[in-house]
Amino acid sequence: MRILVVGAGAVGGYFGGRLLEKGEDVTFLVRAARAEKLARDGLTIHSPAAGDFHHDAPATVTTAHVKPEYDLVLLSCKAYDLEQAIEDIAPAIGPQTTILPLLNGMKHLQHLDERFGAERVLGGQCVIAATVDAEGIVRHLNASHGLTYGERDGSESARIAAITRAMEGAKFDQRASRQILQDMWDKWVFLATLAGMTCLMRASVGDIARAPGGRETMLAFLETCRGVAHAAGHAPHEAAMARTLAMLTDESSSLTASMLRDLEGGKAVEADHVVGDMLSRVANGVDATVVRAAYAHLKAYEARRTS
Predict the structure, then answer these.
(1) Suppose 236 and one of 8, 42, 120, 241 were both cysteines; which one would form an S-S bond, judging by CB atoms 3.0 to 4.6 Å apart?
(2) Residue of 22, 78, 187, 267 marked active site
């Protein structure tokens, strides 16, 4: 299987690197500067949990030279880069190419379907805490490194079986799911609440849970998101909701969203894709005061950042 990984940053660099470590045919679609750095320094993953990996010269290609010769495109960009990423991968999409997006939320599926056709686009998600440091090293920050994928209609297929064969044995947790859309909604309900609240409060889950009224505000945000998922036919299952509740109300937790870290670092944030799209789906008459406040806070930050 020929795999094109879009980008060699925290997510693409980690999962693509682990597939490369396993021996899969992996090429990274990167900008010229990143291609030059990878050619000079190689790709390095540092992971206390899963072990380090270095490849002296990973295969790279730039948008000017990419060809439609790949079986799988692993799309791991940020939502605010999706429009450009779609243009970048278009020349790589051949008759048998499958796209596996790992973006948060759901809105990206519509954009990918419109450009490439729904039959080419799988459902997918990943769970990982990683970053790229100033030297370009991919640093895995904890023990979580999971990737889930599946046909959006819940069926089994030859291409899912082929992807599973490619990923089995790589040093990350991989799972083919027969309910990938539900998995994506479960993550979105959790992530929208986590990102919205930690950004709005500029605080960790534990700090919010211990603050007067903090737990109640967190639960109000979560209930709005759960209601959106329910209206879409993807209400979180009892076990998923129990896990989410436990994580978002833990008074000892130092958990924050990566969006808060981006915001505090003056970087771009996925306000529209993670929080704004959730807010746009709230039914008329439903109290979404906290979600609306979080979204307004993020958009005000964006306005100030770009002014």
Answers:
(1) 241
(2) 187
